[in-house]
């Protein structure tokens, strides 16, 4: 049975994402190397707190998301599911195919809507940015 206040190094990425962080694979590896220097496979949460503060302090705005989206959306019509699949599997850190499929299913359900709220074949940058940003407490 795992000790309280300890997580497996395999669960670090999931743990960080549950805190609305969006760490890169490199950042996850750095956290593991710093917090588990002997490679024992487990991390005590207390030493992670300073690292968590750094990861959580990286604000991303809706405009950042829309600007990044527009790099690929040259025509301003949105991105098709196929275009998004190509982007996710070709640029930056490669996601496993299962994660891409899961993400695209969510995009198709929540972001492929036109201005009247009808199904569209393109991912809306506005809906995409709202979906990927952490929810703000009001």
UniProtKB/TrEMBL annotation:
<protein>
    <recommendedName>
        <fullName>EF-hand domain-containing protein</fullName>
    </recommendedName>
</protein>
<dbReference type="InterPro" id="IPR050230">
    <property type="entry name" value="CALM/Myosin/TropC-like"/>
</dbReference>
<feature type="domain" description="EF-hand">
    <location>
        <begin position="60"/>
        <end position="94"/>
    </location>
</feature>
<dbReference type="InterPro" id="IPR002048">
    <property type="entry name" value="EF_hand_dom"/>
</dbReference>
<dbReference type="GO" id="GO:0016460">
    <property type="term" value="C:myosin II complex"/>
</dbReference>
<dbReference type="InterPro" id="IPR011992">
    <property type="entry name" value="EF-hand-dom_pair"/>
</dbReference>
<keyword id="KW-0677">Repeat</keyword>
<dbReference type="GO" id="GO:0005509">
    <property type="term" value="F:calcium ion binding"/>
</dbReference>
